[in-house]
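Bug #77: duplicate submission created two jobs. Keeping one. Sequence:
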Amino acid sequence: MMHRYRSHTCGALRDSDIGKDVRLSGWVHRVRDHGGVLFIDLRDHYGLSQVVADPDSPAFKHVEKLRAEWVVKIDGKVRRRPAGTENAELPTGAVEIYINEVEVLGPAGELPMPVFGDQEYPEEVRLKYRFLDLRRDRLHANIMKRGAIIDSIRRRMKEGGFFEFQTPILTASSPEGARDFLVPSRLHPGKFYALPQAPQQFKQLTMIAGFDRYFQIAPCFRDEDARADRSPGEFYQLDIEMSFVTQDDVFNAVEPVLRGVFEEFAGGKKVTPKFPMIPYADAMRDYGSDKPDLRNPIKMQNVSDAFRGSGFKIFANILAADAKNEVWAIPAPTGGNRAFCDRMNSWAQGEGQPGLGYIFWREGEESGAGPLAKNIGPERTKQIAEQLGIGVGDACFFIAGNPKDFVKFAGPARIRVGEELSLVEKDQFAFCWIVDFPMYEWSEQDKKIDFSHNPFSMPNIEPERFLALDPNDNDTILGLKAVQYDIICNGIELSSGAIRNHRPDVMKKAFAIAGYPEEVLEEKFGGMLRALSLGAPPHGGIAPGIDRIVMLLCGEENLREVVLFPMNQRAEDLLMGAPSEVSQKQLRELHIRLSLPDSK
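Kept job's structure:
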């Protein structure tokens, strides 16, 4: 007795099934009429099968009525496709099914967007009809790949001796980086839960509770504006925490997992064999960014010496004005022609800069060409070429001032040069760790020392030395590094992590240096402080973003292409109509009265 809906899936039939009576169910992917013979590509989750009806088929008059995306069941006989019509691209491409009978299981009205083909459609339509969008090959494949990537991560974490835990979704509001999503409490009028921005405190408490190696594929909720590499509302991260570890232990546990997953799903692209460790200060100097894209080989260099007291007065005066000022060079291998240099100069002006000084080297002008070369003379030009290891056929661009200010322009300029000259090696995943982040920075606005990044990272010196620091010794304090690290792939930050500050005395001192009195620490992080004061192991972790990992491995530019049901840029779910208004009865139960802004 045959199954009510199918004997095989639409991806299953092969040569060996020729002659069998079969039953398939699926969606009408497309209908083709070849001189009165109707060909239908029938699609389900598993693949496509070609089904055929000619005027002799008893089902012909029913097949004629079928339209795209109708759900149908067909009965028929498997036969070999006529010579020359096989489709080697399809696993089922050697056979077709001659239809004897058809039943419509779910007719479809007029489609707001087609499923066949991969043309671009307005985002609003795609998100409102996401279930249709997800029927398209590329998205269906992305979502299935996402599941496979998560399976692989989970397997690798368990093999690495990690245990999976679940932490609360309803928790207390925390003063982390972004805004919390708040959930009103019915049982406690006027009080609110918050959705976790990350399971940070819970994972640390799990270590303090003695569980040693924690991981979770954790949902995180942040009420912040959308960007291409950041989903509005919610996202997932591979949350990791480990006890009794140094920074190296974290790297040795996490790096093989990420490298392995990338090698497994990279589709032949190269993956960095051993992730280099780049100190934050070096990353800013060499790449103008703490998220360097290492597929681009260009490294910037400080060439101040070549301009100090030179005939190029603009730069010479900038260097003389302040000891902090420098001149940086961006080498441009193969860019040695005026047309390219002028193009970069115009681009810089479009970015709001006065321009971009340059020297280029061409045949017969080994001492360099362009106005800048003339101003500083052949000796200094040669000095620059030798320092940068460039020569005939190459160019070089210059930026002057305080690096702290111009780095925001220098980084993008380096990226632009690499792209324009096709120096970026696209078919690879280039990883690195960024380490030695500054612990503190000077806040011009408040005229005081403040935390640079995460206030809960361990300072990178012995606790006793840290506790003995003079809080007024600004030079020493601003030179302190935190045991904090980022993992970067192709210029995208996958995660920040740190060895946590597990000592209450060190934490109090760290906050005091940044001008936070002990009562503020008690009020905001009292629970954490109490936990740390009752026997806390040294611990640390990291939390790579799952959505970003999947986006990179699917070769997508936008997270919405790798998330099942994403929101739009305004954090609206157009399919379900969220956020939505709720009834007066619900508001009364929660003791909430709305105070809406005047709509002008």
